[in-house]
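Issue: copy button drops trailing tokens. Both records pasted manually instead:
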Amino acid sequence: MSMFKDFLHNLFYILTPIFIYVSFWKGVGFHRNRKLTSLFIFLLCLSSMILSMTFPVYIGESTTFDLRHVPLIIGTIYGGWRVGLSLLIAQITYRIAFIGTEGLFLSVYLAFLCFILFYIFSKYHITMSLKRKMIYFMLTLILITSLTFVLPSNRFADNRLEIISYMSESFGVYAVVFSLVIYLIERIRINERLKSDLRKSEQLRLVSELAASVAHEVRNPMTVARGFIQLIHSNANISNNERKYLQLTLSELDRAQSIISDYLSLAKSKKSELQTINITYTLDKVRHTIQAYALMNNVSVYLDVPSQLKINGDEKELTQVILNIAKNAIEAMPEGGSLFLSASHTGQNVRVKIADTGTGMTKEEVNQLGTAYYSTKEKGTGLGLMVSFNIIRSWGGHIQVNSQINKGTEFLITLPTVVEIKDEHETALSSYNS
């Protein structure tokens, strides 16, 4: 009964920091600061690890067992290699200073194995499903247990049977605890993503309702006003200053019209009919469309697209998405630069990449992209990107944004590919290039 109670205490030390992180740190929004978040994860894992080592599970009179490696692995996977290495050093230091050197080799050996193997695993776990993560966790634990049997038994215990028995029991306990901890953490992360998607869907719904009720009524009087301003602008009797002011008014009216068009794009309730699109044709058309605007801003446009890349979608909407992102990329290079339009075939998907060498964005700014009324531009509304994200999502794809300050930004648009080549644009592309 005492051993079971000690095990529950160790389990409590492991689970409590998870709930503290979710309810306190993420609850008040501190998780947006990456450095502070890494430090907080380190402190939580450190306290959990020290408590587990200080109050172990007693098996008999001389044998103890604890869950010290769980916080080390969690910190390595979710906090990064710096957090993991710091926890490894802290674990070894505490072990020598407060517990002693008996059995030190086994403790250090297992700690290093956990850190190295799960650091390698951490590079791939983000793209895995929950089921695959659980399987890979179990396989990694089996590998750690097996590698313990490689060294001579006298380095660990009096005989090999003793170490096999101890490691087998440890594997069983760690497998159960890890399954619980990883499932809990991943379910929390999934719920957070679902909440974020729900908030964005609610924003989209509200903006769509606003667009449907206001946009048409606003556009009609603006069209009349623009017509009369153009009429006055064409009068030869007005001064140069007056002509300049009228031109400024026209440009602002055009910008308002563009915003209204974005609203109306959000308000479209019917789904467009999806057809087979030739990505090569679309990207080549976009390059020619933005070439003049790029030259005005001292930006060079490069195109690298293999032939026969096909997707299902709406050509006009895809052109709108790529043009919107490309235009934003050009505006992100006020001192000139390079814009790269490329596409490639990856598995069952087509990946379109739009990259620039502009000012870049912080991680916090990237996370806000696609949200209504958020824009890094002074006069932007964020509706253009919101429309773009919504269009790609409706086709079963997604947009990933990678950015570094003063290095540039890349948009990766991933869409399901079309295997069969039956596209009317193939002929159009040939005539277009000729």
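Record 2 (pasted manually too):
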Amino acid sequence: MNWQPPTSTRHSALLWPRRLATTRADRLRLALLATIALGVAGCGAAPSPGAESAGSAAADADAPSGQVEAAPPAKLEVLPALTDAQLSGLYSGTLLKQVVFNDIDGAGLLLLSRSESTMPADGDEDPVDQVTLRAELYRRADQKTPWTSRWAVEDPVQCEGLDLEADYFLDQVTATDLDNDGRAELTLASHSFCGGGIDPQQLRIGLRQGEQYYEVRGESLVQVEGDEPFGGERQDDPALASAAPAVRAHVDRVWEAIKRGHAGAP
């Protein structure tokens, strides 16, 4: 009789691969292959420099506009004085001082002048002497265009039959940028007197920045040996209280410098 393999042998052959995969060595091998496959799938090609630049540009475009830094304001620059020919026709009377500067608003020219006149007598009254102090700011777009007046402040002082004196504290007339915004603050300080004895002088400080104007008025402090000091009162413009701290401190320093008045006054 010829030997025939049992029927169960064919079934065992069909099941053999599955039995082989269940051995410990094959399980480790398949696990390793799966791990390698996952690693390859998770790794992509490195982005090109162009792609990185495009991504960066897109991120910048999506950034809120408020995060873009604004250009710093122009710095105040005080310039040398202009010649008499360059100032021709820009003032009347006697030129006392000029302040030439550049700021965020462009080229600026501040001129201070003083003029004297006598008002005609009215009936039996005596003629009245008058001194007028004038400060005027000019602006221009460039050196090829003429200066244009932006504002002027006149302070006429009249005095009848007594000693008259009025002038600026020229060393206190300045262009500054105390709050660092690029726009000049222009400070004026003046004194005036009408009297016949030892009386306080009238003091005035004006500070203008753009359209904003602050003012301080008062009297000089008079000190006579052997007597109690008198005068020295100061009255501030209410708007000064809301000015920047650096501006208020500057005004205080100017007041301290002028509060005893002008030594050459009558």
